[in-house]
Structures are given as C-alpha cells and as structure tokens.
Design goal:
Layout lengths: L1 E6 L5 H15 L3 E6 L13 E7 L8 H9 L11 H7 L7 E9 L9 H11 L8 E5 L10 H20 L1
Parallel strand pairs: 1-2, 1-3, 3-4, 4-5
Length: 171
C-alpha cells in the first residue's frame, strides 16, 4: 500500500505533525511520501492508495491567500503564500479507489470553536463523493507554535490507528 501525506504549514507545526503521521503509517507497514502542498501534483489521489491531508486552521477554516499573507507578516516563509490545500483541492484529479483522511493544527485556545481546516477538507471531499473518517486536530500553544505537549506522539498513534482500520477494510 502506498500513501502520501500532503500538508500545508506556515510555521513548521503542521509539517512536524505530517512527519509524525507518516511515521505512524510506516510503523503499520505502509510506504509513505510526505509532500508539501506547494509541490503536490494534481495526480496524487490517482497514484496512492491512501492520502492524508493536513492544514493549519486559519480564520476557523482552511487558509486563504490573505491569511497566508498575514502569516508571512508574522514571520512565515514567503513561499507559503504560493498555494494552500484549498487551491490544491480545486485542481486535484479524482480517483476511484483512494482512501482519504484529514488533520489540522490549531491553537489550543480554538479547541472549543467550531472552525477546523480538517473538517473543511473532509467536507469538500465528501461533497466529491469520498468517504472520509472523522478529522483529527492537533494543538499548538499559540498561532506560531510550538506544538502542545505530546501532540507529535498523538499524531503518530492516530495515523497507526488509521492504517490498521484501512487494512481491515481492504482485507
């Protein structure tokens, strides 16, 4: 089984979680590529059995050009302005037999707020006809980070559970 973890990250926190997710999938025996969204092709869904999509929560949902520009003003690298998960999903080609999952990073202070980049990703994918398990959120202590205690380990465990569920489905 081949998987890709496609992620968008402003301050490195979502990238760290994406790596932890990939490591959790690898522990379950899955071959994994970790791909920044700026480098993700439109064929990722067609060339993988599992695609896990990660994004930071911005303004209660997925980033937009203006929220990415604001992140750059706060110190994020300029290349994050190029393209986010939202724009990638608009161009990605559908596939019949791919499994999908989504996660986000969000400030711990947003824990009880309704917005979530991962839930927005899952919603868009469901509208396209995909089955998507409940999205996961991983917490940062503030907008720029760092990650809250134990979130990297929790991400790896979440991914390993995801892989085991998937393997039961396809068996």
């Amino acid at each position: 089984m081949r998987a890709a973890v496609v992620y968008e990250s402003m301050f490195g926190n979502t990238a760290t979680i994406a790596t932890s997710v990939a490591n959790g999938l690898r522990k379950a025996g899955i071959e994994v590529k970790v791909i920044p969204v700026t480098l993700a092709g439109d064929d990722v869904l067609r060339t993988h059995d599992l695609v896990v999509i990660g994004a930071p929560t911005h303004a209660l949902g997925m980033s937009r050009p203006n929220t990415r520009a604001d992140a750059v003003l706060r110190g994020a690298p300029a290349e994050v302005e190029a393209r986010g998960v939202r724009e990638w999903l608009e161009t990605v080609q559908d596939a019949e037999h791919v499994h999908l999952a989504a996660f986000d990073t969000r400030a711990r202070s947003m824990r009880h707020l309704p917005g979530s980049a991962a839930r927005h990703v899952a919603h868009l994918l469901r509208r396209r006809g995909y089955e998507v398990p409940p999205a996961a959120s991983f917490y940062v202590s503030s907008i720029e980070g760092p990650l809250a205690h134990e979130e990297e380990a929790r991400a790896g465990d979440w991914a390993a559970d995801l892989a085991h569920q998937l393997m039961r489905q396809v068996a």
